[in-house]
Amino acid sequence: MAYPASRSGVITVHAASADGKPCASNPFAELGNSLSILGKNVEAAWIRDEVADNSAALRRMTGTSVATPIAAGVVSLLLELAMLDVPGDLGTEATLRRMLPMLKKYDGMMDLLMSMAVRTQGGDYHNIVPWNVLNPSKSLADITKYVEWVLSRRFGTP
After folding, report:
1. How far apart are the two ends of the chain, measured CA to CA in Å?
2. Helix ranges restricted to H, 17-157
3. CA 103, 1, 69, 105: dihedral to nearest 10 degrees?
4. Binned average pLDDT, 10 residues per bin, the chain of 158 residues
């Protein structure tokens, strides 16, 4: 793996198709420890060429440069979760606040991303499936308990 992905403390993200299959253009995977997320054939807004005015406002893009901001969005949602105000459930709110410092650590976030990932065929990648944790059909208290359980395996009971 190349710099900066090879540095310790860096979460490396590879590109995958919508069904979780790794893209052929990915760099080599670190066996058993490589994350992937949607990054193939992603429709994205694009700047129009005002002079020619024949360029599309949307483009399909593929690669780790597409997958990485999508993964960053998932990480942002997980951090936001830990900062939610829960006026009707002060216990859940307190638990979320205790988890935030652990989620800010490489190991805590990596453990949570791996827990929501599905191992791909061949086993080289763990494809991040956000709704495995951030599922709208689950209550906030249930999601909190799950995240707390994942983090407690590494850090002990918060």
Report:
1. 34
2. 64-81, 90-103, 106-115, 140-155
3. 10
4. 76 91 83 86 81 72 93 97 92 94 96 94 86 95 96 88
